[in-house]
Fold:
Amino acid sequence: MVDQSTPETRTPGTAPGETEAASAREGISRRRMLGTAGATGLVLGTAGAAGGYAAAPSEAAAPLTSLGTDRAMFHGKHQPGITEALQARGHVVAFDLAAGAGRKEAAALLRRWSETARRLMAGEPSGHDDTDVARDAGPSSLTITFGFGHSFFARTGLEKQRPASLDPLPEFSSDQLDKNRSNGDLWVQIGANDSLVAFHALRAIQKDTGSAARVRWQMNGFNRSPGATAHPMTARNLMGQIDGTRNPKPAESDFDQRIFVPEKGEPAWMANGSYAVVRRIRMLLDDWEKLSGKAQEDVIGRRKSDGAALSGGTETTAMDLEKTDAKGNLVVPINAHARITRPDQNGGAAMLRRPFSFHDGIDTDGVPDAGLLFICWQADPLRGFVPVQRKLDRGDALSQYIRHESSGLFAVPGGAAKGEYVGQKLLEG
Structure:
């Protein structure tokens, strides 16, 4: 959890959608709904999605009935699911290649996965044996993203193509990692603004796997639904805190430099790709909720009501790290989470956060198993995630209220051109 996320926004529809009851009465089909989406211009390419993530194009929240028509594009310079707005539902799943499966089987699997992702993101049924779970829904901003873990390259004889940036993350003193829920040969991220659409995609990806791979671990997450607030605003996490304001923004001149591997970068197959760090961070909510509101604000360094820094102003006002109170004490405590994670306090280290909250039930002792599926994107984790986490490890006030329980690092190649599949330059290069 770092204080770098941007306000949760989305591109609203140009016309209000019909109610579900009206849709049922008129018998509007899935294909007709998608045709309407195309006509109203609700197609989000990379640039449009990035702009929507960075700033709200309108103060009015889109009506919930329009959510199904929103569509992200599978083909493009970058894979989907990186710069798009936060989605209401998410699944992340890691696979290990089956015994005896290698490069040939991996290539066939990525080809199947890419075609399924293309179809589902367009609001079409999967190519074969569709379960019909999402047949009444539109695309609902579905994105499906694919990545490779460190172990994938040895399993496929591609060690020479493994990026140096994919070296295992260092150990951190606050880690309590479950190895069975960490890492993996292959990683898939699924997000959508409808739970059935997201589950449908998860099930289709799993079925496509066949005998080539097996699930290593799988996690489910959620965010606030678009349109649930009077106007677009930064999401809150399960601690009730507005979670971040300082994400890199696509409009910034160095955004691509920080988040994406350059077109002439190394290795060549990672051009326009990015690296995803995935961490399951459990929040110790019973301990957190015993703190007073003021104590919680001191831990974070921001007001709980509106996300503004304790030094004053609004949510987006720059934090004054030197401001003191009448007694000469720093207004933003020296170990406040927001102070420690500031890029200008970490040599400019930055990452694009795109997390989901999770709640996986209540333990036998009555403690909620809940927290954050932390997912961050950067051009190089050694310059993005690692230096920030090392600094947090040394004295973050939030550390006693969270526990890092699983971790993974994945190389996510650039987007697939039409007629290509994700990872083709690696697997057929």
